[in-house]
Amino acid sequence: MITIESENVVYKMSDKNDPVAYCQSGDVVEFQTLDCFNNELLSKEAKYGVDNKSLGNPATGPLYINGAMPGDTLKVEIIDILVGALGVNVIGPFSGGLKHKLTKYETKRIPVENGIAKFNDCLSMPIDPMIGVIGVAPAGEEISTIIPGTHGGNMDCRQIRKGAVLYLPVLAEGALLAIGDLHALMGDGEIGGCGLEIEGTVVVRVSVLSDKKSVAPSVYVDGKWITIASCKTLDEAADEATEMMLEFLIKETGMNAYDAGILLSLCGNLVVCQKVNPNKTVRMELPISVLADLGYVID
């Protein structure tokens, strides 16, 4: 198995980034990741805005997948996500809808042991690890790892977790996949500005699908097909995620637009992934079971 260590990070997705590893389609690769604060706030003495001097959201990589060319689709199977023993959450004036009530920054360090996050002496909760940043090099100008888009990036989608299959459009030769910003736990919306930020290890299998075109990120997990859109506003992202699912239904099942729209009204679920990044991210979920009679099967 190929391993990419956490010293190999980027802060921008770009086709100008030099690959740190190469693999073949179908290979299994391990990404070792830092938390979104570069592990600089793990010490109890560390203060946000003082001791986290590096850029935020380091993404381990990039990985060059041989044979991946623009127009292909990169299939990323999330085999496992292992997280560290200590997570960090910072909340304060940057915290989305709460910022008018939170006038100073507070940092909370939460230990994780045996799959349990110990919030305080009275409250503990099971973790649900997910990947905040996962993406490929965009076409054209570089994009910060803080910003999500059609290339993936900082989508903060809770459904990108162990067992999920993520489909990304290949926009540059080799795809140049990078992964980071793991969360041991995060609620949909990420309303406080971050989740339980934590270092860890992600194991994936990457495959190039030359006969499948993906225009934007999509996910298959737990019997759900999910389209993901990131735009300047939540309304725009919601509309785009919905239109992506509509196009999926028309293309893959032969349904007309009216029947597809009615099906989405009856069975589709629109969910906010995050509302705190420069682009907001929304997903549309549809149970694949409703398509069984149409003979649709996920690749």
TrEMBL record:
InterPro entries: FmdA_AmdA. Gene3D superfamilies: 2.40.10.120, Acetamidase/Formamidase-like domains (2.60.120.580). Coiled coil: none annotated. GO terms for molecular function: hydrolase activity, acting on carbon-nitrogen (but not peptide) bonds, in linear amides. SUPFAM superfamilies: Acetamidase/Formamidase-like. Signal peptide: none annotated. It holds the Pfam family FmdA_AmdA. This is Acetamidase. It comes from Clostridium fungisolvens.
